[in-house]
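Side project, low priority. Logging it here so it doesn't get lost.
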Amino acid sequence: MINKTATFLPMAAIFVLVSACSTFKKPTEEKYNPTVSEQAEFYRVQEQLIEKDLPNCKGCIHGSSHEQTFTAPLNIYEIEPEAVTELGLVNTKFDIPVTWNKQVSMWVKFFTGKGRQHFINYTQRAGRYAPVLSKIMADSGLPRDLIYLAMAESGFQNHARSWAKAVGPWQFMPATGRKFGLNIDWYVDERRDPLKATIAAANYLKTLHGLFGSWELATAGYNAGEGKMARAIRMYKTKDFWSLTKGRYLKAETKNYVPKIMALAIIGKNLEVFGFNEIKFETALDYEEIIVKGNADLYEVAEVLELDFEEVKRYNPEIVRWQIPPYFESYPLRVPVGAKEAWEAYQDKDSVVADSYKTYVTNGQSSLQHISRKFKVPVDVLASLNPDVSQSRLSPKTVVYLPFREDHSIEASMYSDIYEKPTRKLARRRSYSRTISSYSNRGQLIKSPTVFYTVKKGDTLWRVAQRTGVPMSTIIRTNHHIIKRRMILPGDKLAIR
């Protein structure tokens, strides 16, 4: 009997898993219920996988490319000799382009200076995840050093979440995640599953490289979006990333993104050179699988296993609530080694069903759509919990089940994604967008402007209107092409007459 250990997530045959990923996905239009065998195939592992893979390069973050992985058709890139001399590098070859310039140097200084502890944290987590992510990339025909993109995105954190609601180790936005096969709904978010998210990231990066023809542009496109990069290329008539950074169209975040990845790769493949001599790499989580039925209550499953609920969730980061999605017939749940025996010995597995729901009693005429807006719960989730209730018209005192556990506050951390307040930065952006939208069609359009105002540091649209005596609505409508996507910046030339 194979002991299912080695990695937090299984790695059987990645080529099989890539094709299985689309099969495993639950279509939006019609719920798909994978069989136990299909799910088990998706999660199957080989014993001691990492040991059977190629060894790590000396002094590198686990999973980095090295001499034994430099095989065709991948290109091999060697950093400039002056960088080797200046930094005293030992490992100088990469399977993604790495350039030594002012931008890259700035990030190297950051991660070896003020950001040193961040780098240590990232690197320690890399021991658990990077070898698996690296192998998926390699089995997909991509460079292993793309693990440094994941490092830049999330520091290898499954629960990383950006202000823009990008989630997981590869920081997928919801639309892009779904486009590349990840299931994201009320119950699960596969962007948090390192295996499935990495398969999706490999497919996305392969698409981006096919569009742009270079890894600098592909990785920049991963940050900015393929549309933004394509427009930048057309605008500046060049496919050289460093030339694109000299223009103002790309955001500073994107301009810094590629050199940040390169800096992480330089340091990550020369740990001792930069004084990271005693990194304690986290080890992979050993686990076993048990098969639970759909709609199982994970609190009750944890009780049977004699584990904390949070421990069960740690092994299954893609499950975002307290129950297995009810649209599954069964689900392969990962548990610590040794816990499987307790589950197999438990005779009443059908009793661990999720039925402890909060209820809401309507005061007057209502509908599921109204309750959906009130509690920020999707209508289809409410409909599945209340199959005997009309969606369009509810009588007073109708009892409606809500997908919150009875003993939970609806503001508990488990539901923070739906009740969280926007950050100040996001709130400002939303306010700005509303202002631009409301004024854009109200002002006068100056068709052939002859007088322009150069924006100074500290200027706002209101301040420009006060200084020039031109209505803000006219400034917004006339300069909509500049300000529709961002706030004004010093140096912008605004037409005012």
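Brief comment: The two ends are 80 Å apart (CA to CA).
Revisit when time allows.
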